[in-house]
Specification:
Number of strands: 10
Number of helices: 2
Shape: elongated
Strand content: 25-35%
Radius of gyration: 28 Å
Structural class: mainly beta
Helix content: 10-25%
Low-confidence stretches: none
Order of helices and strands: EEEEEHEEEHEE
Largest sheet: 3 strands, antiparallel
């Protein structure tokens, strides 16, 4: 059996199973901690066995608050860049740049820079590589606080 209640903070109307009464959860609308109240008999919705939800006499119309924007709304989920395989099939090839820092390829006592760079270049394909340029950069080691000069590459390719 379900019952309906409102969040104490954002007043979003929520519906839960009666078994959850008295427990604490996060509100899905405002993410704040709320206590699910123990329902009164008038709040409990019992659907007739096998009844269609649209014909349920206890069915309550929900009204959700939707923010209104002037102009286009900000995109909250950014579209991912296409994979190299998809980009390679695109007839309108674009010039792209990929950088690799040696520090990003290090594992415990092992330098994987050559393997990672070679795997990427093979994936792109020799015919699509425009240039491979060496890079030198400096960063501060967080553990020791010292400045370290390191190297990497920048690959310009069509894809």
């Amino acid at each position: 059996m379900d019952f309906t209640f409102k969040c104490n903070h954002c007043h979003q109307e929520l519906e839960v199973d009666i078994a959850a009464a008295g427990t604490s959860v996060e509100c899905p609308a405002c993410n704040r901690k709320i206590n699910i109240p123990v329902p009164e008999a008038s709040q409990i919705h019992v659907a007739p066995h096998g009844a269609n939800a649209a014909n349920d006499p206890n069915r309550e119309e929900k009204h959700f608050v939707v923010p209104i924007h002037e102009g286009p709304a900000e995109a909250l989920i950014k579209k991912a860049a296409p994979t190299l395989e998809v980009a390679a099939k695109d007839p309108d090839k674009k010039i792209r740049v990929w950088t690799l820092r040696r520090v990003d390829t290090m594992s415990v006592n092992k330098d994987n820079f050559d393997e990672v760079a070679s795997a990427f270049l093979q994936k792109v394909g020799q015919e699509y590589v425009i240039s491979v340029s060496p890079l030198t950069y400096t960063y501060r080691d967080l553990a020791t606080g010292t400045w370290i000069t390191d190297y990497g590459i920048m690959v310009v390719f069509r894809g």
